[in-house]
Amino acid sequence: MARPFFTYILRCSDQSYYVGHTDELDRRIAQHGRGLGSGYTATRLPITLVWFEEFPTREEAKAAEAQIKKWSRRKKEALIEGKIEELKRAARKDWQAYRERGGKEN
Predict the structure, then answer these.
(1) Of 11, 51, 92, 102, which one is least surrounded by beta carbons within 10 A?
(2) How many Å apart are CA 79 and CA 72, to the nearest integer?
(3) Are 7 and 66 contacting, i.e. CB atoms less than 8 angstroms apart?
(4) Strand 5-11 vs strand 48-55: parallel, antiparallel, or unpaired?
């Protein structure tokens, strides 16, 4: 059986979020906790794993990571809390704001 891949979100000590992907979730979280592998989390210890999802391929995990990294804090927190309706509302508000800017990124 193929090894699964994971996309994950960490909450840092400053209450910011870090999004990553890996094929060895426990090992990667332990690395973050020791200040290894990411300069961002190393300066914001301690960290807490607050969300993860399993994917069958690295490409899918990387795509999920890239998508979530673009999200607002509100959308990330809705995902973490499992509030799917809130996530949908936040996505609609993001889309509306995007359209109001004339289809331009911030």
Answers:
(1) 102
(2) 11
(3) no
(4) antiparallel
Tally of CA atoms within 13 A in the half-sphere of 72 that contains its CB: 17
Distance in angstroms (rounded) separating the CA atoms of residues 3 and 56: 8
At the second CATH level, the architecture of 1-70 is 3-Layer(aba) Sandwich (3.40)
> Which distant-in-sequence residues (6+ apart) come within 8 Å of 13 by Cβ?
44, 45, 46, 47
Q: Given the DSSP bridges, would you call strands 17-22 and 48-55 parallel, antiparallel or unpaired?
A: unpaired
What is the pTM assigned to this prediction? 0.85
Q: Is 57 exposed, middle or buried (0-12, 13-18, 19+ CB in 10 A)?
A: exposed
